[in-house]
Amino acid sequence: MLRIEHISKQFDSGTTALADVSLRVQPAEIVALVGASGCGKSTLLRIVAGLDAPSAGRVFINDEPLAGPNAAVGVVFQEPRLMPWLTVRENVRFGLADLAQAEQNARTDAVLERVGLTNFAQAVPRQLSGGMAQRVAIARALVAQPALLLLDEPFSALDPFTKMDLQEHLLHIWAYDRPTLLLVTHDLEEALVLADRIVVLRGHPGHIHEMVRVELPRPRRRTDAVFQAYKQRLLDALDVRAAVAV
Amino acid sequence: MAEVTTSLFAPATRPAPVAAPVRQVPTQRPTAQPRSPRRWGWLTGAILPVALLVLWEVLARLGVLRANLLPAPSKVLATIVELARTGELWGHIGITLVRVALGFVLGGALATVLGAATGYSRRLFHLLDPLLQGVRNIPSLAWVPLFILWMGIYETSKVVLIAVGVFFPVYLNLMNGVQGVDRKLVEVGRVHRLSGWQLVRRVFLPATLPAYLVGLRSGLGLGWMFVVAAEIMGANKGLGFLLVDGQMTGRPQTILASILLFAVLGQLTDAGLAALSRYLLRWQDTHGQESNG
Ligand SMILES: Nc1ncnc2c1ncn2[C@@H]1O[C@H](COP(=O)(O)OP(=O)(O)OP(=O)(O)O)[C@@H](O)[C@H]1O
Ligand SMILES: [Mg+2]
To answer: Could you give the ipTM of this predicted complex?
Structure first.
């Protein structure tokens, strides 16, 4: 579904953020990217989103080479990035442009229903809590029914309860039409709750250090011994044993 | 938060939580609650002006203030009433309003085009902005002799002078506004593959509106300032003409009447723009929002 081939990225400033990253993602697969701060996770996601061009290498989506933002790709940023002058409903509709009005309305209502915000359709962003705003952002990314959804630390600004709630929620929404998910996160538990596969990036410039397939049935329990064993393995892979108190 | 914790742990004895009641009335602004403090604020603000007026009137009637320099407020009002009765007043107000309006539209329109262009395009910014900033540093009234020489003493030179006054605040605010549009929101537009014009209409325009409206308001203020200058430099009609006329004929009440009318008209047009701003920017989440009546 998604093929990343030998991507490198050097910024004009001279920083090399990524070195020769290759990755294949299957349809409906959920892949998490983890790695220390500054190892190029966001950079990789922005390249796949078509917002930045790689210095070398290519990206294919459904075997089509990627050139700029793509209709098949939805993006959720770390911040909700809602248009403050639009209502929740209009913000979600922002994700739809070239469809007939009736179709736009139907899809918007459906996706608002799925993220549980039907009652807030007429609210404006300043009236929303952080978690609700991020749900709107997810709805906006989903309304065009992308085959690939990119999420860059989508829940990192939220409190632990809202975060866990939204992780559940994301899986629930994902089950509806099962888009491919590529998710950047700092939170190993988040990666373990959501992902089929976890890609560990390391170093400056960032490269793929290890891939871990998570063979745990869903729903996954954080307290489970196997879950914790996976977590330890990721910590080892990231080489942060000393820095993190488990 | 409430959703997560209560659905899991709420004991049966605790009253059922109401789901976010405050946020359920998003389209209506609260009207009843902030009213009374605002009215008190208004009353507080009126104390000093009213006291001064009363003092002025009393001193004038007692003859402490010389009537040929500072006539009583009642006499100023009577002058306005008299002007209105003869019908002369409406002609003066009308022509002044027309001049301000024409200058405002002309200067505002030009500033809108240039401000949007230099804000949006780096290249145009580097091409045009140094020139415009240079021109801005010329005190605008210095243009007066040249404009009169070029366009005569009649309407054109007046309107152009007012337009020059309106131009710069609108231009500067709009340019800064466009340049300051949040890159993150622009990226959202790009992710959704908005074309150039769609991006302008759906992201840049609304995001720039607050700065633009500020520019329009200060532009209008300068427009009123410059209409005075334009009418003083030579006119046979208009509120500025009344100023000169009052001076020539030694009637301070006419001058004060004109000043009062300028104040009222300036305030009214600004209040109109302010109301328009509040309406257009009702989505804004700012500190002064509720009290900035
Ligand atoms: N626009 C840019 N110009 C220059 N350098 C950049 C730019 N964006 C990122 N970088 C650099 O590229 C490297 C990778 O940045 P990136 O944002 O991808 O890291 P990250 O893994 O997402 O980090 P974090 O976990 O903190 O979000 C960093 O060294 C950063 O300084
Ligand atoms: Mg990042």
So the answer is: 0.89
